[in-house]
Amino acid sequence: MRVDYQIDNHRRVYAFAQGTLDRSGDIDRNDRAGVVGEMKLTDKIGLNGEISYGIHGPGAFHERRDDLDP
Q1: Which stretches does DSSP call E strand in 1-70?
Q2: pTM higher than 0.90, yes or no?
Q3: Are 59 and 32 within 8 A, CB to CB?
Q4: What are the b/e assignments for 14-43, b being 16+ CB within 10 Å?
Q5: CA 41, 43, 44, 50 torsion: positive or negative?
Q6: For every one of its 70 residues, what pLDDT tens digit does the chain have, with 9 covering 90 and above?
Q7: Distance between CA 65 and CA 53 in Å, rounded?
């Protein structure tokens, strides 16, 4: 599940949650929840960041995006 909130034309945040419905063999569950922020700095450059927590512990991710649409 994901819930988005568009702050303005350049910024968006969303919260997400995922749960494992079924698994087989040695595949682990991967339940987690977190928040993501996206910011458009220019027509071509943006930043994304994520903070989450789940069965496998805390997680964080960030990236610079260079492929935004003008």
Answers
A1: 2-6, 11-18, 32-40, 46-54, 57-65
A2: no
A3: yes
A4: eeeeeeeeeeeeeeeeeebebebebebeee
A5: positive
A6: 999 999 999 999 999 999 988 888 888 888 999 999 999 998 889 999 999 999 999 999 999 988 766 5
A7: 24
